[in-house]
Amino acid sequence: MSEPPDLESLRLLVSVGELGSLGRAARAAGIAQPSASKRVAVLERRLGLPLLQRTPRGSALTPEGKMVADWAVQVLDAADELMRGVTALRERRRAELRVAASMTVAEYLVPRWLGEFQSRQPEVQVGLTVANSAEVARLVGEGDLELGFVEGPGVPPGLESRVVGQDRLVVVVAPGHPWTRRRRALTPAELAATPLAVREAGSGTRETLARALYGHPAAPPRLELGSNAAVKGAVSAGVAPAVLSAYAVESEVAAGRLIEIPVDGIGLGRWLRAVWRRGRHLTGPAADLLSIASRPA
């Protein structure tokens, strides 16, 4: 039996199918196209199957490649679940304070909060789980974690909450996108009718956008991706516009790598909240971290 393929090669193959070309998949993965081509060639030799065919519009998956990519999605999901489980077990063994945060909060706010917390209480081990807002709410609601931070438009049922910050969503496109030449702002109807690169179901960002565009006929997503970084990669590759947290795209917009497009007649602001199980009184390290997070930046 041949040696199983490595996970990164499988991720690249799945990305080719999602983005429609090897070049776009390489850019989204942050590698050079020759490296991506070599990686796919090694995968083809290892599996003994042709996976890509070159067309005038780019690289497309062969029928065998499509089947392998479908199986690869299952393998990658299982691998991600394995690592989440291992991480949870490791953190549960070591941590005295277990918290969870949605991706935007975890990437752009939690590091500052934890830095201050650890300077005050260096003896406390903190275990942080990063997930989308729906998963954070589930973990906190089931009592697995003491405290969570979410970015959805409302308070999840069964939880107490406290506002710890504000955020706004922004529409971003790659430089050269036709929207960059517009002389007027987008309307909500135009935004809703555009196939976007979006976060996965359960993401607070996606839920906020869906509520903001409620009542406008919505086009199916062009891509559904599991992280802010993946969505930004798709936008940079010119696959589709996206709506993301201003925190997530601040540096790219400042550097001109992404362009923010104004939208009229729609509210894209949202509150960031700390959540904990209803009826649970936070004490000790959890209460201290909540106090730090609740202070203005």
Task: Describe this structure as you would to a colleague.
It comes from Bailinhaonella thermotolerans. Belongs to the LysR transcriptional regulatory family. It is a single chain. The model has no long low-confidence stretch (mean pLDDT 89). It is globular and about 60 Å long. It contains 12 helices and 11 strands. A hairpin with a 2-residue loop joins strand 1 (52-55) and strand 2 (58-61). Strands 3, 4, 5, 6, 9, 10 and 11 form a 7-stranded mixed beta sheet that branches. It has 297 residues and is an alpha/beta fold. Helix 1 (7-19) crosses helix 3 (33-47), helix 2 (22-29) crosses helix 10 and helix 6 packs across helix 12. The termini are far apart. Helices cover 46% and strands 20% of the residues. It has helices spanning 7-19, 22-29, 33-47, 63-94, 103-108, 110-120, 133-141, 188-192, 204-212, 228-236, 246-255, 284-294, and strands at 52-55, 58-61, 97-101, 126-130, 147-150, 159-173, 197-199, 223-225, 242-245, 259-261, 269-277. The protein has 2 domains: 7-81, Winged helix-like DNA-binding domain superfamily/Winged helix DNA-binding domain (Arc Repressor Mutant, subunit A, Orthogonal Bundle), CATH 1.10.10; 95-297, D-Maltodextrin-Binding Protein, domain 2 (3-Layer(aba) Sandwich).
Write a concise keyword list for the protein shown above.
297 residues; alpha/beta; Arc Repressor Mutant, subunit A; D-Maltodextrin-Binding Protein, domain 2; 2 domains; 7-stranded mixed sheet; 12 helices; 46% helix; transcription; WH-like_DNA-bd_sf; transcription regulation
